[in-house]
Specification:
heterotrimer; A alpha+beta; B alpha/beta; C alpha/beta; B: alpha/beta; Rossmann fold; 2 domains; seven-stranded mixed beta sheet; 12 helices; 15 strands; C: alpha/beta; eight-stranded mixed beta sheet; 11 helices; globular
Chain lengths: 73, 381, 279
C-alpha cells in the first residue's frame, strides 16, 4: 500500500494472468507510474506518483488493472 | 373491426391471422409477399386493439429475427411469407431452433424457384421446411387443407411452439391461403391454449437452459424478468453462455432432437378417408389432399377402391402411420404439388416394398384430378 | 450515502480472460459500457445486449445482463423484436463495422429511419477481425487487408454520417483511447429515447495494424488517437485534412419521437391491454 496524499491510500493491482502486455498503461500514464519488465509486463515502478486518475484501469483492454483507493478520513 | 363470430365466409389467410390472435399472438413482424400478405394486413389492423404490435420489417431476414426477439421478450410472435421470403428466413429460423424460441412461421407456398409462376400455388417447400436452415435440427410443420384448418392449425402451431419451445412452421399454400370458405369460429374462451413453462426457481438459481427431465424442455424466463436469460446462437450449456467443451454440442443437439422425437405422439396428426381396405392408398397433404378426396370418388366409378392418408402434421414425418398404410394396401400414390418431395420420405419408411407412384402437380394450379387418376390407374395395372 | 453501483454488476468477471487479442480495444469498450450502466444505475435485468457475429459479437459472453447472441448482421433486427416485445427494456445492439454496415446495413438504416428505441454501439476497427482481416465497409480507401493486398479500391462508409442521414436521434463518435468521453457518450445514448448510435473507433493491431501501421499495439492506439479530432478542430480543417481524420464528439442530439410512441399514438394504443376493441 502506498501513500499518495494526505487523505488517501492508493493500491494498484495487476493481474498478471489477465495482462496481455499491450503496453497501454505504460505508454499512457502521464505520471510514468509503470515500467515494462523485460517481457513487456508492466511493473508499478513509481506508485508515489499515482494521482488516482484511473485511466490505466479504464484503458486496460483486459480488466487486468485495479486501482484501489482507501479514504483515511 | 371486432373479432368475427360464429359462421363466417372467410379467406384462409384471414382465418390464419384470427387463429394466431385467438392463440395469444401479440407480435407480428413481416415483409409483404403474395400470396400471404393478407395475414400481415389483418395483423396490422387488429393487433393494436389487443395491445399487440405489428411491424413491417425491411426484409424477411429481419422479420424472422424480430419474431425470435419478441418471443424471448415473452410475447407469442409470428410471421408469414411465401417461398422466396421463406428462404430468407431460414438462417434465423436456425437461431430460433437453437435458442428454443417458441414462434410460428407461416409459409403460403407458391411456385418456384425464383419468381416462378408468381403467385400460383405449389407445395414445393416441403423439404425447405424440413432442411432449409443450416445444420442439424428437428422441426415441426403442419399442413392445413381448408380455411377452417388454417384457423385451427394456426392455434395448434402456437400451442406446439409453446409446448416444445420451438419454432413451428405452418406450411400452407396459395389455395388454402386465398380460398374463401365458410368457417365456424369458436368462442375464444373455449379454446385450449398452451403457454410456455415459466421458471419456478428463484432468480439466482435460474439457469436458462437447464431442462426438466420429464419433457427435456427448459423453463423459459423472458427478457425483463429477474431471471436472467442468456440466449445464444453459439453452442451453449445450461447457463446459456458459450461452451466449447467436447460433448456439449452433442448433448445440446441430442436434447433438441429428443425433446420433439420422444414426444412425437403429441404432434403426429393424420386423417384417414375412404374405405379401410383399398387397392390403392393415396398419401397427400394440404390442398392436394382435397383433390385426392375427389379422386377417391372418381376411382370408385371406375371400380377401383381407393383410400387416402392425409398428413395434417408433416414434420416430424409420421413414419409409423405411413408405414402401416403402405403395409395394408397393394399400391400407393403420393399426390403433391412438386416433382416429388414427400414421396422420398414415403419410400424411406416403405419396409413392405409396396409400389409407390407419384402424382405430381407442377403447373401452377391446384393439382388436377386427372393427374391423380392417371397415377391410380398405373398403380393398379 | 447510497452505494454507487459498480461495473461488476454488469460484467461477468468469472469469464475472464477476455478472448480478444492483445491490444484490441474491445475490452476497453466493454468497460465503458458497463461503467455507463453502473453510472445510470439501470438494474441488470432491465438491460438486454443483442450482439452480432465477429470479434465484438462475443461481448455478450462477458455480460451479466440479459443477453442475446444471434446471427451475423442481425443484432438490430433481433433487438427490434426484443424491444417491441417488452418496451420497458434497454436494448443495446453491439455490432462491429462489418456487422452493422455490410451484412446488417439494411437493418441499420431502417432502425435509424424508424427511430426504434435501441442503442447501437459499434466497435469500428476497420476490418473483419474474426475471419482473418479482410476489408470491411469502413476500411479506409487504399488500406491493405488480406482481401485487398495492394489496397482497398472502395471508399469507406462514414458510420455517423449514415446514422444521421437516416434519422437517428443521437449520434456520437469517440475512440477506445478517449475512455471517459466514450463512457459519457454511451450513457447519453442509453438515456435518449429513439435510435442512438455510438461509434467507438477501435484498435486492431493483429490484422488492420499489422498491414497498415508499423509498430505494435501502442502504435495502433496512436493511430486511433491521431485519426480522431474534436469537432472544433475538425471544422477548421480543409477538405484534404478532413478526409484524413474522423470527427469525434456528439454529432446529433435531437428528440424525434421514437417508433413505438408514434405507433401507439397513431393506433390509439394506450397500454398493453390495447385500445379496447379486441376480445
Amino acid at each position: 500500500m502506498t501513500k499518495t496524499g494526505e487523505d488517501k491510500d492508493v493500491t494498484i493491482h495487476i493481474d498478471e494472468a489477465l495482462c496481455k502486455r499491450c503496453g497501454f498503461c505504460i505508454e499512457y500514464c502521464n505520471k510514468k507510474v509503470y515500467e515494462a519488465d523485460k517481457d513487456g509486463m508492466p511493473l508499478v515502478k513509481n506508485p508515489e506518483e499515482c494521482t488516482n486518475c484511473r485511466l490505466c484501469e479504464l484503458r486496460c483492454p483486459d480488466f487486468a488493472i485495479r486501482v484501489e483507493v482507501v479514504n483515511n478520513e | 373491426m371486432s373479432r368475427p363470430k360464429g359462421v363466417q365466409l372467410m379467406e384462409g389467410n384471414h382465418a390464419c391471422a384470427w387463429g394466431a390472435i385467438d392463440a395469444g399472438a401479440r407480435f407480428y413482424a413481416g415483409y409483404p409477399i403474395t400470396p400471404s400478405s393478407e395475414i400481415a394486413e389483418v395483423c396490422a389492423r387488429e393487433l393494436p386493439g389487443y395491445g399487440g404490435t405489428y411491424i413491417q420489417m425491411e426484409d424477411e431476414i429481419g422479420s424472422m429475427a424480430a419474431i425470435v426477439g419478441a418471443s424471448l421478450s415473452g410475447k407469442k410472435s409470428f410471421t408469414a411469407t411465401s417461398g422466396p421470403g421463406f428462404s430468407l428466413m431460414q438462417e434465423n429460423l436456425g437461431v430460433g431452433i437453437y435458442q428454443e424460441a417458441p414462434c410460428v412461421l407461416v409459409d403460403i407456398q407458391r411456385v418456384g424457384p425464383a419468381t416462378g409462376l408468381a403467385t400460383q400455388p405449389a407445395q414445393a417447400d416441403v423439404m425447405q421446411a424440413r432442411w432449409g436452415t443450416h445444420g442439424d435440427h428437428p422441426i415441426i410443420a403442419l399442413s392445413p387443407a381448408s380455411v377452417q384448418e388454417m384457423y385451427y392449425l394456426t392455434i395448434r402451431a402456437f400451442n406446439l411452439a409453446e409446448r416444445f419451445r420451438s419454432p413451428v412452421i405452418l406450411l400452407g399454400d396459395q389455395v388454402v391461403g386465398q380460398t374463401y370458405e365458410n368457417i365456424a369460429l369458436p368462442d375464444p374462451d373455449s379454446l385450449e391454449i398452451m403457454d410456455r413453462k415459466k421458471p419456478i426457481v428463484p432468480p439466482e438459481e435460474y439457469l436458462p437452459y437447464q431442462y426438466d427431465e420429464e419433457d427435456l424442455v427448459p423453463p423459459m424466463a423472458a427478457y425483463g424478468d429477474k431471471h436472467i436469460l442468456h440466449a445464444s446462437s453459439t453452442c451453449h450449456c445450461e447457463t446459456g453462455y458459450s461452451n466449447f467443451k467436447y460433448g456439449t454440442n452433442r448433448q445440446l443437439l441430442t436434447r433438441l432432437k429428443n425433446k420433439i422425437y420422444n414426444y412425437i405422439d403429441e404432434i403426429i396428426d393424420v386423417e384417414y378417408f375412404g374405405p379401410e381396405d383399398a387397392d390403392v392408398t393415396l398419401i397427400s397433404f394440404g390442398s392436394s389432399s382435397r383433390v385426392c378426396k375427389y379422386a377417391v370418388g372418381l376411382a370408385e366409378k371406375e371400380g377401383i377402391k381407393v383410400n387416402l392418408l392425409r398428413l395434417i402434421s408433416i414434420w416430424p414425418f409420421p413414419d409409423r402411420e405411413v408405414q402401416q398404410a403402405l403395409a395394408r394396401t397393394g399400391a400407393a400414390v403420393v399426390a403433391e404439388m412438386n416433382q416429388g418431395q414427400l414421396i422420398g420420405e414415403v419410400n424411406r419408411v416403405n419396409t413392405t416394398n409396396t409400389p409407390v407412384h407419384l402424382a405430381s402437380g407442377i403447373d401452377g394450379e391446384l393439382i388436377r384430378p386427372e393427374i391423380i387418376m392417371t397415377s391410380i390407374r398405373e398403380a393398379v395395372k | 450515502m447510497a452505494v454507487k453501483l459498480s461495473y461488476r454488476e454488469y460484467f461477468k468477471e468469472e469469464a475472464l480472460p477476455l478472448m480478444w487479442c492483445a491490444g484490441c480495444g474491445n475490452g476497453i469498450l466493454l468497460r465503458a459500457i458497463t461503467d455507463a450502466l453502473a453510472d445510470l444505475e439501470i438494474p441488470p435485468h432491465q438491460v438486454v445486449v443483442s450482439t452480432g457475429i465477429g470479434c465484438w459479437g462475443k461481448a455478450d459472453d462477458y455480460m451479466k445482463t440479459h443477453g442475446f447472441h444471434g446471427s451475423h448482421g442481425r443484432a438490430l433486427a433481433f433487438g427490434t423484436g426484443i424491444k417491441l416485445g417488452n418496451p420497458d427494456l434497454h436494448v443495446l445492439a453491439l455490432m462491429g463495422d462489418g456487422d452493422a454496415l455490410a451484412i446488417g446495413g439494411n437493418h441499420f438504416i431502417h432502425a435509424a429511419r424508424r427511430n426504434i428505441d435501441i442503442t447501437a454501439i459499434i466497435s469500428n476497427n476497420f476490418t473483419y477481425g474474426m475471419t482473418g482481416g479482410q476489408y470491411s465497409p469502413t476500411t479506409p480507401l487504399s488500406y491493405k487487408t488480406t482481401t485487398s493486398p495492394v489496397g482497398v479500391a472502395e471508399p469507406a462508409f462514414d458510420v455517423c454520417g449514415l446514422a444521421e442521414e437516416c434519422g437517428a436521434n443521437y449520434v456520437a463518435r469517440s475512440t477506445v483511447y478517449h475512455v471517459t468521453q466514450l463512457k459519457r457518450f454511451i450513457a447519453a445514448a442509453i438515456q435518449k429515447k429513439g435510435f442512438t448510435v455510438v461509434e467507438a473507433i477501435n484498435t486492431c493491431p493483429t490484422h488492420f495494424g499489422r498491414r497498415n501501421i508499423p509498430g505494435d499495439s501502442v502504435e495502433m492506439m496512436e493511430y486511433v488517437k491521431n485519426l480522431s479530432v474534436p469537432k472544433s478542430r475538425y471544422e477548421k480543417m480543409d477538405e484534404e485534412e478532413k478526409a484524413k481524420h474522423l470527427v469525434t464528439g456528439e454529432l446529433v442530439n435531437k428528440d424525434r419521437p421514437d417508433f413505438l410512441s408514434v405507433y401507439r399514438e397513431i393506433n390509439s394504443v394506450e397500454s398493453e391491454s390495447g385500445r379496447g376493441e379486441g376480445k
